[in-house]
Write a structure and sequence with these properties.
Layout lengths: L2 H7 L4 E6 L7 H7 L7 E4 L5 H4 L9 H12 L3 E8 L6 H4 L5 H18 L6 E6 L12 H6 L3 H13 L5 E6 L7 H16 L5 E4 L2 E3 L6 H12 L4 E12 L4 H20 L3 E6 L9 H4 L3 E2 L12 H12 L1
Parallel strand pairs: 1-2, 1-9, 2-3, 3-4, 4-5, 5-6, 6-8, 7-8, 8-9
Antiparallel strand pairs: 8-10
Helix pairs in contact: 1-13, 6-8, 10-11, 11-13
Bound molecules: ligand G3I.
C-alpha cells in the first residue's frame, strides 16, 4: 500500500506532497504525484502564489495552479492551498511602488477575494499567511509589516480569508523553524492567543519541517511544539517536510535522514490533532534545496531514478507500526 493508504490507517487525514509545474510533462513523475494511494493530498509548490495568480493588478491568472489543481481533483486528492500572503514571489507591480495602508488593505482583500472564490471548493486548507516571523520571534520586516506599521495585516488577512473561502476550509498560519519550542514558535502561540481573544479566525498552524541531517529536532521536540498548538484547540500539520544532506550523499547520511523522516511523521501520528504530513516534493531532482543551499540536496523520498530511498521505507514502516 502507498503512503496515504498507510497514513489513513494510522489515523491521519492524509499523506501528501508538494508538486511543482516544471516536471508535469514527465509521466514517470506525474504517475506517482497524482496517485492517490501514495499521496492523498497535494500542495501546488508555486502556482497559487501572488506573482502567478495576479501578475498585473486586478488581472488574475489561474493557469499554473490549475495544471496541478485539476489533475489532483481528478485523482481524488485533497489540496492544501498555498498561499495568500508571503513576502516572497510577489509581482513587480506590488513591490515596486509605495502603496498606502488603505491601498494595500484593498489590494489584499481583492486578491484574497478573487483567489479564494475561484478555488472555493478546492481547498481543504489555505495557508493564509506564510513566514511572517523572524527566527528570534520578532515580526519580519516586509512590504506588509512596513506599510501597516506592524503585524495587523495578518489578522486582516485571516478575516478576509474567512469571508471568502468555503465554510469547511481550514485557515492556517504556516512557518519554518517552529518545530521546536523556541522564540519563534512561542511568538506563533502568542499570536494565536491574541487572535482567539479578539475573535480573529484561525484553525491551524503548519509546521514546515525543512530539516537537515545532523541538526534536526528530535521526536520529543517536534511533539512538544505540535502540542502547544493543539492545546490552543488548533489543528496542526507538517506542511513541507524534507531532510537535506550535505552532498555527496552517503549510506550513513541516508540512514540518518530516514530516521529524521520517520521521527517527524511519528510525532504527527502520535499527536492529538496533527492532521497530516506533506513532503515538499518527493523526487530529489525537483527539490528546492540545491539552488537555495548549494552543496546540499537529496532531501526527498525518491532518488533521481525514482528509486525509493531508506527514508521512503522508514516512513512506510512507521505508518504501518502505528
Ligand atoms: O517562474 C520562473 C520560470 O518562468 C523560469 O523559467 C524558471 C527558471 O528557473 O524559474 C521560475 O521561477 C522559479 C519558481 O520557483 C517556479 O519554478 C524561481 O526561480 C524559484 O526561485 C522558485 O522557487 C520556489 C521557492 O519557494 C521560492 O522561494 C520553489 O520552487 C518552492 O518550492 C519554494 O517553496 C517554499 C514555500 O513556498 C514556502 N516555504 C519554503 C519553501 C521552500 O523554499
Amino acid at each position: 500500500p502507498g503512503l496515504d493508504v498507510l497514513a489513513k490507517r494510522a489515523g491521519l487525514l492524509y499523506f501528501g506532497t508538494a508538486i511543482d509545474n516544471v516536471v508535469l510533462n514527465d509521466t514517470r513523475y506525474t504517475s506517482i504525484a497524482f496517485n492517490r494511494s501514495e499521496f492523498g493530498q497535494v500542495t501546488p509548490a508555486n502556482g497559487q502564489k501572488w506573482m502567478y495568480i495576479e501578475p498585473e493588478r486586478n488581472v488574475f491568472n489561474y493557469t499554473m495552479a490549475n495544471e496541478i489543481v485539476i489533475p489532483s481533483k481528478k485523482a481524488g486528492q485533497i489540496r492544501r492551498c498555498h498561499n495568500f500572503i508571503w513576502h516572497n514571489q510577489l509581482p513587480d507591480w506590488l513591490t515596486s511602488k509605495n502603496y498606502t495602508k488603505a491601498e494595500l488593505t484593498s489590494i489584499l482583500e481583492n486578491h484574497i477575494k478573487h483567489e479564494a472564490t475561484y478555488f472555493k471548493n478546492d481547498c481543504y486548507a489555505w495557508d493564509v499567511v506564510n513566514e511572517a516571523l523572524n527566527d528570534d520571534g520578532t515580526w519580519r520586516q516586509d512590504i506588509w509589516s512596513n506599510t501597516f506599521g506592524g503585524p495587523e495585516y495578518i489578522a486582516l488577512a485571516f478575516k478576509f480569508a474567512r469571508k471568502y473561502v468555503s465554510r469547511n476550509t481550514r485557515l492556517y498560519y504556516n512557518d519554518y523553524n517552529i518545530e521546536t519550542v523556541n522564540n519563534k514558535s512561542l511568538a506563533v502561540v502568542a499570536m494565536v492567543k491574541d487572535f482567539q481573544k479578539r475573535g480573529v479566525p484561525i484553525d491551524g498552524v503548519g509546521l514546515q519541517a525543512h530539516f537537515t541531517v545532523g541538526r534536526s529536532p528530535t521526536y520529543d521536540q517536534v511533539s512538544a511544539s505540535i502540542a502547544q498548538f493543539n492545546k490552543l484547540g488548533l489543528e496542526t500539520a507538517l506542511t513541507e517536510l524534507d531532510v537535506r544532506v550535505a552532498l555527496p550523499d552517503t549510506p550513513a547520511q541516508q540512514a540518518d535522514q530516514a530516521k529524521i523522516y520517520a521521527d517527524s511523521v511519528k510525532a504527527c501520528v502520535d499527536a492529538r490533532d496533527c492532521v497530516g504530513v506533506t513532503v515538499w516534493d518527493f523526487w530529489d531532482p525537483v527539490s528546492w534545496v540545491p539552488s537555495t543551499f548549494p552543496g546540499n540536496g537529496d532531501a526527498d523520498l525518491l532518488d533521481a531514478n525514482f528509486t525509493r530511498k531508506p527514508a521512503y521505507y522508514a516512513v512506510s514502516d512507521i505508518l504501518r507500526d502505528d
